[in-house]
Design a protein that fits this description.
The protein has about 950 residues and is an alpha+beta fold. Helices cover about 40% and strands about 20% of the residues. The strands form 5 sheets. The protein has a 7-stranded mixed sheet with strand order 9-10-8-11-7-13-12. Strands 14, 15, 16, 17, 18, 19 and 20 form a 7-stranded mixed sheet that branches. The chain is globular.
């Protein structure tokens, strides 16, 4: 694993984002700005970084930069109320945060698009006119101290601070950046004002913005609210690059006693000024080789000797003058005892590299993969993404920031060797972390126990003259790097279709990763035919996973995953990850799918957990209970929780073992394979699965088919029950009808048109509750429109009245819908439908849905998009008015009452599951549509 440290933190490429437009500019006050406009993002977001952090804290006020970060959220001249920014964002689907680093303080937020201009006004006032109110300044010191106390016993914080102390006396890297009540004691307001006036200048600020608003609109917002931030010259104190001088004939050894059971060995080397090598990124190239995990690698050798579990390497910097290269090794107990042997092997490998140099193909492969990743990187959004951009803008120039952080543009073997030449024992700080290390000192802020020594003599000599690198070699050329990528769009091909299976395969032409994802639905009649079999299937599933856990865990660490999941039709087997060993994992799982390998004790624990989980569901939130009652009404074959509990109670381990032998007596597999594989390999995987199951074919008329109920025209079914939750809930369902492409297109557009108004009226204006949803829904071949509200203040009967009053008023909303608004909804829906998965696994999930739920119609989305394009506004409005206002539209209304609700239940309302079953809605097919 290659660690690129802070330089590549939280950053993603711009490529592959056809709808994302960017622009850079510099405001009149020298504030540098990156604007991104993307119609597909869910929320707007922005971040502003300031090129100052705790490296610049006054020695008499350590933690000042961090403390000031807190204070900017506590009122400004234009918005003086403390917490008003948070309240505003909370009311507009938003949030905010900030962090203070070595030489950067980064502020960021996200909000709904409509609130974004005002949010930007409030945000910009942080940097224009913070109040630094004295009362809150005193209070916020305690908040900073609480944050310190939260981190005081965290091994990462403790080790990071202590490692920094092994630096030259007086160097700012030694600062106690987080601060606490002691370092920030007294009246801080004068120091706050001085620090802010000294460093918070627009010329060292960088602003990044992402919204669905146009670039022109974003530029106007930025010009309006950020142009008057103060701009003045800033003289940042010097941060010397020689923060830790090499020793002579010795290396430094820091032993840290950890709180948790941690065993690690870290080697830290000050190195060349990496900020001068942005095009060649030499530390990344060196890390690619040292951090290699293949045959002949340093890690492979360490593992063979039983010394290590993992290794990472990387170079980076926070401040341009503070460049380092690090190697971190996760040790075994043996490695902990023999850490000196680990050091010898590390330097044996480094010495080998000094002799061999770096092959050009290492650069070419790294460069090629970086370009591929850049080209196909999926778009990201949100405030965390924008914080990464604002941080990157402190490192790269505006004309570099879109590409240079991600690409390797220059082959520079001299720079690679320059980094390698800094990896010497005398230039090294070794940090050994463990619970049982010997210590003789205590760090004053975190209380960390440690020892610091200088190691010379034979231990040092073994590192300067390490043994020959027996079994360790330079990484071989990687023939899997796809240098000549071409996009070839094709539909999935049907590679097997017989009485046993129907399997599709689609080769991955997009992501070009050595990965494949397999998903097979193994239909069997023994899962949902009876409640007893459903209970057995749940215990069987957990028992299989538990029995395979120790066998598959090492495989999961190698990037391979599997799962067996229950569907009403049968079991779904999913296997995914790197192609090289995928069949090995498939064989292992398939071979054990009919064998239960757990003890009675483990089975008892599993069974108890299943029973407890079902009972806990009965104590769940009101809207979730409403969903459960809803399923009891609409799904013709639906077991109750009480039935399932009763079926589970008597089951024994032997029952599950017998069940595993008959579960796959007759099967039919439907599935989809997607990734970088071959047709032959796909066919082989199907044969492996079916061969291990040794099943007879399952005839089509024996396969489980979900049956959905139908209400008669104008029929209204109301159900109410009291639950243990302290909330009420309404689950209101309108029956739309049998699915057709046109009907689904209409319903999708209707849902898009009314969603915002429903949310605004029910939640924002009427404040009925926190959970307010409206959406279209499909159950099998039936379409529905649903509305859900959970409320702690209003009874479900009142919620019903409010929803029906809203439906009565939709005529005004629909009649006022302009052609422009209709087209906006149409465009938004089409963009949503056309959005594709951003990974092989995500695409595979979509394809599996088309294979199993759309009967292999992989053009379903394209057909739906075409249906949406053909709709006229008049047709959609007419359909919406009928849906919401016609008394002929059948509906179910689930009214869940809280534990404190004492409303009288009307006589026409059903109150038990038995009543639902006794007058169940008519099954599909009885009523003509």
């Amino acid at each position: 694993m290659i660690v690129l440290l802070i330089v590549l933190l939280n950053v993603s490429a711009f490529a592959g984002m056809d709808n994302r437009k960017t622009k850079t500019l510099v405001l009149g006050n020298n504030l540098e700005v990156l604007l991104m406009s993307d119609p597909d993002v869910d929320r707007s977001a922005a971040a502003l970084s300031v090129g100052v952090g705790h490296l610049y804290d006054p020695q008499e006020k350590m933690g000042m930069a961090h403390y000031l970060e807190h204070m900017l959220f506590l009122g400004t001249e234009k918005y003086p109320e403390v917490g008003s920014f948070k309240d505003f964002l909370t009311a507009h689907s938003g949030s905010s945060n900030a962090y203070t680093g070595d030489n950067i303080t980064n502020y960021f937020f996200q909000s709904s698009h409509d609130a974004f201009p005002e949010a930007m006004d409030r945000f910009s006032d942080f940097f224009r006119a913070p109040l630094f109110d004295k009362t809150y300044a005193e209070r916020e010191v305690q908040a900073v101290n609480n944050e310190f106390e939260k981190n005081k016993l965290q091994d990462g914080w403790r080790a990071s601070h202590l490692t920094n102390q092994v630096s030259k006396e007086g160097h700012p890297i030694r600062n106690f950046g987080i601060g606490n009540a002691d370092t920030l004691a007294g009246d801080n307001r004068p120091a706050l004002l001085e620090f802010h006036d000294k460093y918070y200048s627009a010329r060292i600020m960088r602003l990044s913005v992402l919204s669905k608003l146009t670039l022109l609109e974003l530029e106007r917002i930025v010009q309006k609210y950020f142009s008057n931030i103060s701009d003045h010259s800033v003289n940042l104190p010097e941060v010397p690059s020689d923060y830790r001088q090499p020793l002579s004939g010795k290396y430094r050894l820091l032993k840290i006693k950890t709180i948790k059971d941690v065993r690690s060995l870290s080697l830290d080397f000050p190195t060349i000024r990496l900020a001068d090598y942005k095009e060649s990124k030499p530390a990344s190239i060196v890390a690619t080789v040292i951090g290699h995990e293949g045959q002949g690698s340093l890690l492979s050798k360490l593992k063979k000797e039983g010394l290590a579990l993992g290794l990472s390497a990387g170079g980076g910097y926070s401040h341009p003058n503070l460049s380092s290269f690090g190697i971190t090794i996760n040790l075994t107990p043996k490695g902990m005892d023999k850490y000196e042997r680990v050091l010898e092997l590390v330097f044996s490998y480094i010495e080998m590299l000094k002799k061999t140099g770096f092959e050009k193909y290492t650069f070419e492969e790294t460069q090629a993969m970086a370009e591929i990743d850049f080209e196909w990187k999926s778009p990201q959004e949100g405030m965390g993404f924008m914080a990464g951009k604002a941080a990157m803008m402190q490192i790269y120039k505006l004309d570099e920031v879109e590409e240079l952080p991600y690409l390797f543009k220059k082959y520079d073997p001299d720079a690679y060797r320059a980094v390698l030449n800094t990896l010497t024992p005398e230039n090294m700080l070794v940090v050994l972390n463990g619970q049982n290390v010997e210590t003789d000192q205590v760090e004053k802020f975190f209380g960390t126990e440690y020892s610091l020594t200088q190691v010379g003599g034979s231990a040092y000599d073994k590192l300067t003259h390490p043994p020959e690198p027996e079994g360790m070699t330079y990484p071989e050329k990687n023939d899997f790097v796809p240098y000549k990528l071409e996009m070839v769009e094709e539909d999935p091909s049907l590679i097997r279709d017989d009485q046993y299976a129907k399997i599709w395969f689609k080769f991955d032409h997009k992501f070009k990763q050595p990965k494949v994802y397999i998903r097979y639905r193994i239909e069997t009649p023994h899962v949902y035919d009876t409640v007893d079999n459903l209970a057995l299937s749940k215990l069987y599933n957990l028992a299989i996973h538990e029995g395979l856990n120790e066998l598959t865990y090492p495989i999961s660490l190698a990037g391979l995953v599997y799962s067996i999941d229950i569907e009403k039709q049968g079991m779904t087997l999913s296997v995914g990850g790197y192609t090289e060993r995928i069949n090995d994992l498939l064989k292992l799982v398939a071979k054990n799918m009919k064998t239960i390998k757990i003890s009675k004790q483990k089975f008892g624990n599993i069974k108890e957990a299943v029973l407890r989980d079902i009972r806990n569901r009965q104590l769940g939130q009101a809207y979730m209970r409403a969903s459960y009652f809803h399923r009891q009404l609409w799904q013709v074959k639906q077991y109750t929780e009480e039935e399932l509990l009763a079926a589970l109670e008597p089951i024994t381990l032997e029952d599950v073992r017998q069940y595993s032998q008959r579960l796959y007596e007759r099967v039919y597999a439907t599935g989809l394979v997607h990734g970088n594989w071959t047709v032959a390999e796909v066919k082989s995987s199907v044969n492996i699965l079916l061969g291990e199951l040794s099943s007879l074919p399952l005839a089509e008329n024996e396969r489980y088919k979900e049956e959905v109920a139908v209400l008669r025209p104008g029929e209204k079914v109301r159900f109410s029950q009291q639950v243990q939750d302290n909330n009420n809930a309404l689950y209101y369902t309108l029956q739309v009808g049998e699915r057709s492409m046109e009907r689904q297109a209409k319903l999708s557009l209707i849902a898009s048109i009314v969603e915002s108004d429903f949310y605004t009226q029910m939640r924002t204006n009427q404040q009925l509750g926190y959970i307010v949803w409206s959406f279209e829904n499909r159950m099998e071949e039936r379409l529905f429109f649903k509305m859900i509200i959970q409320s702690s203040n209003y009874s479900p009967f009142e919620l019903q009245k409010r929803v029906e009053a809203w439906m009565d008023k939709t005529d005004g909303l629909l009649s006022a819908l302009s052609d422009e608004e209709f087209e906006r909804h149409r465009r938004s829906l089409i963009v949503s439908l056309e959005k594709q998965g951003d990974s092989i696994g995500a695409v595979a999930s979509d394809l599996y849905y088309y294979a199993t739920e759309e009967d292999g119609n992989f053009q379903f989305k394209e057909q739906l998009v075409e249906a949406v394009r053909k709709l006229s506004k008049d047709d959609v409005v007419a359909a919406a008015k009928k849906l919401f206002q016609s008394p002929q539209v059948a509906r179910s209304i689930i009214l869940v009452r809280s534990n404190a609700n004492d409303d009288a239940v009307p006589d026409d309302v059903l109150t038990t599951i038995d009543q639902i079953k006794n007058r169940r809605a008519t099954p599909v097919g009885v009523i003509p549509q």
